[in-house]
Design goal:
By secondary structure, this protein is an alpha/beta fold. It has one domain: Glycerol-3-phosphate (1)-acyltransferase (3-Layer(aba) Sandwich). It contains six helices and seven strands, in the order E-H-E-H-E-H-E-H-E-H-E-H-E. Helix 2 links the parallel strand 2 and strand 3. The protein is globular, with a radius of gyration of 16 Å. The chain starts with 7 loop residues before the first strand and ends in an 11-residue tail after the last strand.
Amino acid sequence: MLGLKGPLVFVSNHASNLDPIYVGCIIPPMIHNLAKKELFKVPFVGQWIWLVGAMPVDRESADSGALRRAVDLVKNGGRLLLFPEGTRTRDGSLGPGLPGVGMIASMSRARVVPVYIDGTFEAMPRGVSGIRPHKVVVNCGEPFELPKRSKGMAGKEYYQLCADEMMKRIAALRDDGLEGSAPAEQGKIESGQSPTEDGRS
């Protein structure tokens, strides 16, 4: 991802609280993400997501302020990581994308980069506080433009269309990994190590 310039929105599957940490280590420079405010109180995770550029969001309310900050960050040239599924998977599978992520990405008018993270579910799944040693691979696809909004299409319908396209691209990266073909970019970090160690491929 070193060759990519300008404002970008990265969209990834969400398997673990470790996801933003590993993505932040693989993709320079700093990439920001929205994280539920409760995570900032979790030992280790809270410190690391702060260091890798996380911004707190209150999921119990609309928190329009956090959404506006995210859009403004990208418009000003920043990089933002979003999880279209909205929450961590319970079984390791991909879930449907939510329209809110489509709204943020479309309002930012930035190119979108799909990401598939493999291994964080095994390293630290939902409901587990400790980290298990496991290889983590972060696969990044090619940037793409969001689909055009058809005349007369309602906002929520369009945002869902964008979210569906994101999940389609993320699933394609997953399938490429299963078939053994090489994604656009790939990074590997052993989760038994500190993510700050140089574990890039």
